Amino acid sequence: MKYTVRGKGEVTLTQQEFIFQGGEGSVYGKGDTAYKIYTDLKKIIPEAKIRELKIISCDAVILPKEILLDNKGRYAGFTMKWVKESVPLVKLFTKEFKKRNRITTGVSP
Question: Measuring CA to CA, how many Å separate 59 from each of 27, 44, 81, 83?
């Protein structure tokens, strides 16, 4: 699949770079960049929100960086820093992950 990183040029993403697929879309990784491609364009983060998020300057927060355009020039996703060998924060909230990693809340049911 070919995409254009607005203002940067084309990028080709293949199954080799595929990382994960969820309800909103797919994530690919290439070099030190991750690419989020939305399946449902109605759920895409508005470009204005991406501009607002750019004011956050904390290395511990992974933020959208550049806009990705599909082959028709439509906004299809964004790039972000790819942190390899990390665990998405959302996983900490699943029962399976907590059980597998013996994470407890310290609260009795």
Answer: 20, 23, 10, 11
- Per-residue pLDDT of the chain (109 residues), as tens digits, is 999 999 999 999 999 999 888 888 999 999 999 999 999 888 898 999 988 988 888 877 888 999 999 999 999 999 999 988 776 666 677 788 788 888 887 765 5
Whether the predicted model's global pTM rises above the 0.90 cut: no
Query: Which region holds residue 23: left if phi is over 0, alpha if psi is between -120 and 50, else beta?
Result: alpha
2-5 and 33-38 beta bridge pairing? unpaired
